[in-house]
Structure formats: C-alpha cells, structure tokens
Amino acid sequence: MNTAIELSGLTKDYGSRRGLNDLSLRVEAGQVFGYLGPNGAGKSTTIRLMLDLIRPTGGTVRVLGLDPRADAVRLHRRIGYLAGDFVVDGRQRAGECLAFLGDLRGGVPAARVLDLADRLELDLSARVKSLSKGNRQKVGLIQAFMHRPELLILDEPTSGLDPLVQQTFLDMVSEAKAAGQTVFMSSHIMSEVEAVADRVAIIREGRLVATDTVAALRARSFLQVRIDFAEPVAAEEFAVLPGVTELEVTGSTLTCRLDGRPDALVKTAARHTVTGLHAESQDLEELFHAYYTGENPAATPHKDMA
C-alpha cells in the first residue's frame, strides 16, 4: 500500500458555517506530513472526519486503504491518535492510565512506556489531574506512540511542551518515519514541522491553499537584498530588472526585494564597483503567514494531490 490517507472532495458544513470546503489530499505511506493552518482553519475537523468521529457533508475518506465508517474498529487498531484536547481520567496515576490504554490495545510492553516516559521526563507516579498541561500532553504523546502504530495522527502535538521536550518529540517523529510509520501532524507553527516533514499542506478557512515540500515552499520565498557601491547608482537601471521590486537607492546603497533568480541583478551590479553585498532569505514563517492571511506569497502556490 503506497497511500496512507486519501481525501477526495471532502466537505463539512456546520449549519451556517462551513468547516471544510471540497478538500482533496493524499498522503503517501511512510511520509511525515505536516498539516498547517491557523486555529479554526479546519485542521481538527479534517482529522475527526478521517477517524469517523464526525461525518462528512460530502466527499470520501480512505485511511490505510479502509473506509473509516465501515472499518472503524480495524482501522483504529492500526492508528495512534492524539487529540487536540486530550482528556483522560484525572484520578488515575499517569502510569496506571497508560497501562490501561495499553491493555485496550492488546498489551504494550512496560519497558516501552518507561522508555518514552524517561525521554519525555514524565513522572508516571503522578496523578493525571495534578499534571500541568505540558505533562498531560506527554501522557497523550506516549499513548499515541507506545504501540508503534502504522499511522500516527497528531493534532497540535507540541501544545504546552517546553522547547527541549519539543525537540525530543521531533526526534520521536523522525524515528517513527525511519521505522516505516506514517505521521500526519497538524500545527499552526511552520517551524515545528519544517525539520521533519516530507510534505506540507496549508489550509485556510477550510480550503487547501498549498501542498508541497518544505524545500519547494522555501524556494518560493524572496530575497531581501542590499548592495553597497563605491559611487551612487541610478535606480532606473535596476528598476527594470526581472523580479526586482520595492527598490530604493539612498546615496551609494541599493535595497530591493528579489523574487526569482538573482542573475540579472548580479550582472547589472557588476557594471559598477561593489563594496558590499548582503542577501537575506525571507523567513519561512513570513511566507507561511502570507498563506494564512491570503496575501500574495512570493509565487503562486502550487496545489497537487501527491
């Protein structure tokens, strides 16, 4: 099986509000797939539809080759799921809670739970109700990973975690991928998935606005360029160059935004004596924010089903 998740024309209406609008998406088996968008964009709605926790208004869903509605029991055995609002019985100790959840899955070796708890620095003897949000999130992560499922579906998995534990989580995701597992993780933070995702999809207001690799998204970002010359230069000489916008010349210093290849700009600058050159890539979070807000990114977003 090459496809872990396939959504086609998926739509979900909530009365007068539409949660998802004609969403089509495919995730290949063995990938880490980042599903990105601001809060309220439709990420959790998509995940709940994939698990048959809610029913679609239109469209189809296939997960691990199965219909989530007709094959829910078989499918859920093969999935590790962390909800965005993970809740368990607060009266139990964390270790008791995880042992109970492991038994529901047919048994999980205690050593596996202890190893994950040690890595995430979770006190298994503490009662769940006494745990901070971050430590409750660790319980949720352990129960999702502990049985080594074929598919991990993680909704805002690093919510409440401190930066060191976030890195441990990303290491766990990389290890899952190396073991052949598929990881589908939602987030509203691009940098959170940049290091581990093979592909990302960006959703805004229930619509898919981009699907691509992180590298391809970065390639669409622009350069912010500053060139220092020995003598003043004419702005008109550079304003006509392809990809050059937001051009300013102050004395012998030129600044501009450059979309695309720098070849023409570099060759034109070389006609003069260049004393300094600085080019800075657009921060990926800024590019991501452009998709969030509906502003025009550096290039037209590419949509696909792969």
Automatic annotation (TrEMBL):
An example molecular function term from Gene Ontology annotations: ATP binding
InterPro entries, sorted: AAA+_ATPase (IPR003593), ABC_transporter-like_ATP-bd (IPR003439), ABC_transporter-like_CS (IPR017871), ABC_transporter_ATP-binding (IPR050763), P-loop_NTPase (IPR027417)
Membrane topology classification: Peripheral membrane protein
Keywords: Antibiotic resistance, ATP-binding, Nucleotide-binding, Transport
Domain of life: Bacteria
Pfam families linked: ABC_tran
Residue stretches making up the ABC transporter domain: 5-230
Regions that span the bilayer: none
Methyltransferase keyword on record: no
Subcellular location: Cell membrane
PROSITE patterns, sorted: ABC_TRANSPORTER_1, ABC_TRANSPORTER_2
Family as reported in the entry's similarity comment: Belongs to the ABC transporter superfamily.
Protein's name according to its UniProt entry: ABC transporter ATP-binding protein
Source species: Actinocorallia libanotica
